[in-house]
Amino acid sequence: MSKEKKSRESGLKVIFLGGVGEIGKNMTILEYDDEMIILDCGQAFGYDEIYGIDAVVPDISYVQQNMKKLKGIFLTHGHEDHIGALRYYSEIFKKVPVYGTALTLGLVDRHLKENKTTMNLKTVKEGQTVKCGCFSVEFIKVAHSMAGSCALAIRTPVGIVFDTGDYKFDSTAVDGKNTDLQRIARVGSEKVLLMLGESTNVERKGHSRSEKVVIEGLESIFREYFNRRIIITTFASSNYRVQEILNIAKKFNRKVLLAGKSMKGIVDVAQSVGELNIPQGIIVNKIDNLKPSQVVIIATGSQGEDMSALYKMSKDSSNVLSVSGKDVVVFSSSPIPGNEKSIFDVVNDLYRMGCDVIYDSLNDVHVSGHAYEEELKEMLSLVKPKYFMPIHGEYRHQARHAALANNQGIKSRNIVIPNIGEIWSVSEDNLHLYGTCKAGKVYIDEDIIQDGEKIIEERKKLAKDGMVMILASIDVKRCVVDGYPEIIAKGFPMDDYLEVKICEKVAETIASQRDCSDLNDVGYQVKRAVSKMLMRNNSFPIILPIFIEA
């Protein structure tokens, strides 16, 4: 079979390495013949169950096996769930062209500089088209919670693939740039083969609210608390929200202090690429000589992150700033799924310190950057795809979005809910599961952890059941303990009686061995015996024998 015929039969491959069945970690591959491109390369958001992990990123084994095919990486926008994995894979992708708008690549470059590395970054403008092998990728402006957000219209040898990116329809966007509905409609008139549609807010009825709501909500807070210091926490990457706060601060004659490394860094990036207009003289480095009524602090920590500025203030552990009962703290953000407990721990601590705390459910201080049900319907009607795949959401979001698409007239047989690791083949005549590939989670603890799942399970067990360490000197010739073992327990209840029983079990187990020359094997036998002794409800602590030869 010729290569050309084989390509026609297999169609365009659409491969999902993240962002389906989950929130975050967005990464999709389009592959045709010997060429492929990547759409987004994000990280997952923190979860309570990933003990001590810095980040979770997609498994890119499939990409590494096919690096010769990779022609480019295309980024829809600069939020961490779309760009966050690049810093960890920068050496692997070092020579691959990475395309994105100015703010998006500015944020990528900031990560790379922190890691003292570089990538082949290529800035594009909204409305620009990039030719990349057999693919032609058009960046179409969409409104979102940050500047430079785009949908991607990808022209392939089998037809157009339309990736919505993260979007909403907001006719009163902060920078005046709304979603380019006319251009999307024109792309739709060209007969889109496949649409990849974000599903985040499919459960919300109606239409998303305008950023104007937040401006009005924040201004009302400034008026009500005119004589008190105001601390506002928001996503550092949401330059529109930061712009609103700066404008309101100027209107109410307040100076602004930026608190948190990422807040300062991202503000610098946004200003340098022309996506943030900072009123002259409004940002200050010190507030000691200012009255509370003259100050606004914009702080990191909207998700309760451990090392954030607001978290440190709530724990009274910041060397720079402290809060008091006279402060008003505003959460101008919404919880990312999985972060609710961390956020409300901070809220509770702030209340304990006497602060007034204002958050989304109490006031209009945040609106979503994602489309609601009616906007999702409108996007489907504009794009008019033959095939539809809901992405960027948990399975329940994808299922509801699939049902929505069906109600909008897309045939049920032309709608697929993809899973991570699936390879789908699409052509004009067919959409079918082509196969699967290695995919899933890769854990980062400063660097990529090999065998990460196993290490996470060990950390979970250590946190749940504790650890018992047994240190002993062994007479290997006689198979006896020389002296008395030392027992060290961490996270496991230990008393004198139990310590004696463990020592007796250790001595008994060693004495029962015929040969003690292999201390690793002796340790394994002791570990089994002590684990069995300490087992309660099918659970036991981690047993760590450390033996030396007497």
How would you characterize this protein structure?
This protein is α/β, with parallel strands linked by helices. It folds into 3 domains: 13-206 and 368-448, 4-Layer Sandwich (Metallo-beta-lactamase, Chain A); 211-358, Rossmann fold (3-Layer(aba) Sandwich); 466-549, Ubiquitin-like (UB roll). Helix content is 30%, strand content 25%. It has 15 helices and 25 strands. The strands form 5 sheets. It has an 8-stranded mixed β-sheet. Strand 5, helix 3 (80-83) and strand 6 form a beta-alpha-beta unit. The chain is globular, with a radius of gyration of 28 Å. The relative contact order is 0.12. The model is unreliable at 1-8 (pLDDT under 50).
> Roughly what percent helix?
25-40%
User: Order of strands in the sheet with the most strands?
Assistant: 7-6-5-3-2-1-19-20
State the oligomer. single chain
Indicate the overall shape: globular
Question: What's the structural blueprint in terms of helices and strands?
Answer:
Layout: H1 3-10, E1 12-18, E2 27-32, E3 35-39, E4 55-58, H2 61-65, E5 70-74, H3 80-83, E6 97-100, H4 102-114, E7 120-123, E8 129-132, E9 135-141, E10 150-156, E11 159-163, H5 181-189, E12 192-198, H6 211-224, E13 230-233, H7 239-251, E14 255-259, H8 261-272, E15 295-299, H9 309-314, E16 328-331, H10 340-352, E17 356-358, H11 373-383, E18 387-391, H12 395-407, E19 422-426, E20 431-436, E21 441-445, E22 447-448, H13 452-465, E23 467-475, E24 480-490, H14 496-511, H15 519-534, E25 542-549
Helix pairs in contact: 4-8, 6-7, 14-15
